[in-house]
Specification:
Length: 65
């Protein structure tokens, strides 16, 4: 296991979200993913762009309220 080199401390919601990804992959493929597989998927440009757009949309919705 590796210690993060930044000041990032994962909140429970992040751990639960990663667990949700693992559970989804397990349910849909029948095989539990390796952590390295999840990490590789999360670092792909397409996924990063989707996450960015989602966060921007959420922030805009909060401003509009």
């Amino acid at each position: 296991m590796k210690t993060l080199k930044t000041d990032i401390k994962l909140k429970d919601c992040m751990v639960e979200a990663i667990g949700g990804i693992s559970d989804f992959i397990t349910r849909t493929t029948g095989t539990k993913p390796e952590q390295e597989e999840i990490a590789a998927a999360l670092s792909k440009y397409f996924v990063l762009k989707e996450i960015l757009e989602f966060i921007q949309m959420e922030r805009q919705e909060k401003k509009d309220q």
